[in-house]
Backbone:
């Protein structure tokens, strides 16, 4: 085996784990988007405040993020209870 072939083989063996990890990273970094077309009642466990939303994601670090339709603000909650609700409950909850 030539010196070039040995170096090529060594570089492939060293970079293979990095390539595999790189391919898996976007899946790990992507937030988990809960069902599209669904409605949610989100209760902030710290304050007890209730939010209603139709767009909810749970980040890999456990934080729940959503846009509050009532205020237009992006809300991030570290501790929250989420309950899927009907469209009628969502509309009654104060959605525009």
Residues:
């Amino acid at each position: 085996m030539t010196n070039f072939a040995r170096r090529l083989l060594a570089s492939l063996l060293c970079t293979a784990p990095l390539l595999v990890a790189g391919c898996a990273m976007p899946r790990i970094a992507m937030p988990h988007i809960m069902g599209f077309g669904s409605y949610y009642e989100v209760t902030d466990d710290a304050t007890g405040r209730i939010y209603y939303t139709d767009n909810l994601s749970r980040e890999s670090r456990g934080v729940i993020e959503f846009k509050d339709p009532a205020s237009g603000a992006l809300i991030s909650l570290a501790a929250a209870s989420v309950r899927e609700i009907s469209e009628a409950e969502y509309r009654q909850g104060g959605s525009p």
